[in-house]
């Protein structure tokens, strides 16, 4: 693995025992090369924390690549291939993993696709496909996982949405489908809470991932400046949040929609513009050491 993935967890070593003896299924877990998306990073981190991980992807080749990365890092994983919009295929894949692992404790609904254009230009087929993968497929996976989670005494479902489901970006079907996933999260949490199944939703911001790598170096810089911290996020930042929500530490958290975006959605365009303008006009000699008060 490259320097970007040589340390599972990214900024800190992700090896540990938080998921020891448990199993987790991650959709959209495939990868190619060392530039990881959120699914592959989440799978790697869960495995590094002791979980037996199911890598569910539409591509056998991409699923196999992630499994190789998991095994190189000392983890355990099995590959599962299915079209997530095919209910029978999803059920068979989830059942197969639960049998292989002996139990099912967590599901991370990570798989997603982006549309071609906004509602003015997208075709009906585009719209339907995006909703099928981004909203219906997580429901199918959750429904297939439900009886296995119940048999394990409960567990966690972690849905991965997007800030496009909270704010307008002109993404049409993508934003609408991710908003639907957030609403479904709260409803499933209500319905399945009595079975000790927690359902939460992570809302990633502008991450530097294969899906989020748009606009070149200038685009990366703009996305970095769009958050409170001025730091570029990557797949590991989402993976750590997924680990927490999937694991036993979050046993009393359900029905939440948690932005993982360095504060991007906590402000407004005007607010960020004002801060950036002030930063650009600040004297070069100003420093934190010049005063003792904030």
Question: TL;DR of this structure?
Answer:
With 294 residues, the protein is an alpha/beta fold. The protein has helices at residues 38-48, 60-72, 87-101, 124-151, 173-192, 216-225, 235-246, 269-281; strands at residues 23-27, 52-57, 76-81, 106-109, 155-160, 197-204, 207-208, 233-234, 257-260. The chain is built from eight helices and nine strands.
Can you tell me about this structure?
- This protein has 294 residues and is α/β, with parallel strands linked by helices.
- It has a single domain, classed as Rossmann fold (3-Layer(aba) Sandwich), CATH 3.40.50.
- Helices cover 41% and strands 15% of the residues.
- The chain is built from eight helices and nine strands.
- The strands form two sheets. The chain has a seven-stranded parallel sheet, with helices on both faces. A two-stranded parallel ribbon has the order 7-8.
- Strand 4, helix 4 and strand 5 form a beta-alpha-beta unit.
- It is globular, with a radius of gyration of 20 Å.
- The N terminus and C terminus are likely disordered.
Could you say how many structural domains there are in total?
A: 1
The major sheet is characterized as: 7 strands, parallel
Examine the secondary-structure arrangement and name the CATH architecture: 3-Layer(aba) Sandwich
Broad structural category: alpha/beta
The helix fraction, in percent, is 40-55%
Q: Quote the beta fraction.
A: 5-15%
């Amino acid at each position: 693995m490259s320097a970007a993935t040589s340390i599972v967890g990214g900024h800190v070593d992700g090896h540990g025992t938080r998921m020891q003896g448990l199993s987790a299924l991650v959709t959209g877990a495939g990868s190619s090369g060392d530039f990881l998306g959120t699914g592959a990073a989440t799978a790697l981190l869960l495995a590094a924390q002791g979980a037996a991980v199911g890598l569910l992807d539409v591509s056998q080749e991409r699923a196999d690549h992630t499994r190789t990365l998991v095994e190189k890092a000392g983890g355990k994983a099995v590959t599962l291939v299915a079209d997530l919009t095919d209910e029978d295929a999803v059920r068979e894949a989830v059942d197969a993993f639960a049998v292989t692992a002996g139990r099912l404790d967590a599901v991370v609904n990570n798989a997603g696709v982006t549309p071609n254009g906004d509602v003015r230009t997208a075709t009906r087929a585009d719209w339907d496909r995006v909703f099928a993968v981004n909203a219906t497929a997580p429901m199918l996976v959750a429904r297939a996982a439900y009886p296995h989670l119940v048999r394990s005494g409960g567990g966690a479902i972690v849905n991965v949405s997007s800030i496009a489901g909270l704010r307008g970006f002109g993404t049409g079907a993508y934003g609408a489908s991710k908003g639907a996933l957030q609403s479904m999260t709260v409803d499933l949490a209500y319905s399945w809470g009595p079975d000790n199944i927690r359902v939460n939703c992570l809302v990633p911001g502008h991450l530097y991932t294969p899906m989020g790598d748009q606009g070149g170096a200038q685009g990366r810089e703009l996305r970095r400046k769009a958050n409170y911290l001025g730091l570029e996020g990557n797949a590991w930042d989402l993976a750590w949040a997924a680990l927490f929500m999937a694991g036993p530490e979050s046993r009393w958290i359900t029905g939440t929609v948690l932005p993982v975006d360095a504060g991007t959605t906590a402000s407004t365009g005007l607010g960020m513009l004002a801060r950036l303008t002030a930063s650009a006009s600040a004297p070069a000699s100003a420093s934190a050491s010049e005063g003792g008060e904030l």
